[in-house]
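User: Can you help me understand a structure? I only have the sequence.
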Amino acid sequence: MDRPHLSDTEKRDWLRLIRSENIGPITFHNILRYYGTAAKAIEAVPAMARRAGARRQIRLASRDSVDREWTALRKLGVGLIAWGEPGYPLRLMQLDDAPPLLAAKGDPAIAESDGIAIVGARNASAIGQRFTKDLAASLCRTGFTVVSGLARGIDRAAHEGALAAKGRSIAFIGTGIDVIFPPENAALFERMAEDGLIMAEMPVGTPALAQNFPRRNRLISGASLGVVVIEAAMKSGSLITARMAAEQGREVMAVPGSPLDPRCHGSNDLIRQGATLVEKVEDILAVVAPQTEMRHSEGLQMPARIAYAGEDDLDRAHAELDRLLSPSPVLIDDLIRLSGMPSALVQMALTEKELTGQLQRHPGGKVSAA
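Assistant: Let's start by predicting it. Here is the structure, written out as C-alpha cells:
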C-alpha cells in the first residue's frame, strides 16, 4: 500500500479539523472522505451545521490555537504522524475511530512492527511485575513489540522488560505528549523516548484526566495483535482494554492468578469467559501465529472518496433519518436498508447530525438520536 506523506499545510488543516468542536475521529474520517481535503471540509462545516438543523454555528479551532500547538510540538522535537503516513501503526489504521493524527516521540519505525499489548493492575504484586518483565522480554526475543500505557505497575514492568531485552516497545499515553504521568515514571519516559516510541492522541499540555484513559486504551488494543491481561480487578481499566480488544477483533489473553487476590478476579474471569490462558510466551505465539503470517498491508487501503451528493439529496436524507431515529440504538445497516438510500448518503447525513450533537454512536455499528 502506498503511504505518502502529507505536506505541512495539509497536516495543519487536519489538526485544525480534528481540534474543532464535535469533530471526533469517526466524523473526521467521514467528512474527509466526502470532501477530499481537510481544507474543503473546514469550509463546508458551517453549511453542514445549517443543513443538520444546528441552532448555532459549530466552533472551528482557530488558526492561532493550531499555530500554538504546532510550534509547541516543534519545540519539543515531536512529530505529528497522520493516518496513512509511514510510522502510523498499521493495525490502528483499521479502526473506524483511528486518530487522524498522533504525536510521536521516539522511533516511528517501531510502529510498523507486530505488537502484543500487556496491561494490568497499577498496584501490581511483586510476582506479577516479575512475571510481566520476563514475559515482555520473551516476546521481544521472539520478534514482537511490547505495547502498553506507561502507567504504574504492570504497564511499567512491561516496558522495562522489553527495554532490558533490547527489544521494541510502544507506549500510548492518555495525556499530551509533553506530560509525564505518573511523575515517578519520568526516567522510564525518557528511556522510552530514546529507545522506544511514545504516542499521544491528545493535544500538547493535556493533563491526566480520567475520561481520556479509555480513549487511550482503544489505541493500545487497536495497535496490537492481541492483549494480555495480568492482574486485573473486576472493575478496572484493563478490563475495558480487553473489551475493546474483543470489539476490535483482537485476541484476548489473560494470566491466571490466585483466587484469594482481588487483583486477579477480573483476569481470572476473562479466562472463564473464553480468553486464552497464558502461562508462558508459547501460549501467546500459538494464538497470534496465524495473524503474523498475513501481510501487514492486507486489507489496509485508503478509503475511497465519496462522490458529493448535493444539498437536495442530503436534505432528503436528513428528513428520512429524523423519521427513523429514536433514543434507542439501531444498526446503521438497518437505517440504510429502511431508508432505501445509498450508504454513502446515509453515512454523511449521520455525520452531519453527529457534528451538531443530534446523534450518539454506540458499539457494534449502532446510533441513536441524542
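Now, to help you interpret it: Residues 126-141 form the longest helix (16 residues). The radius of gyration is 21 Å. Let me know which part you'd like to focus on.
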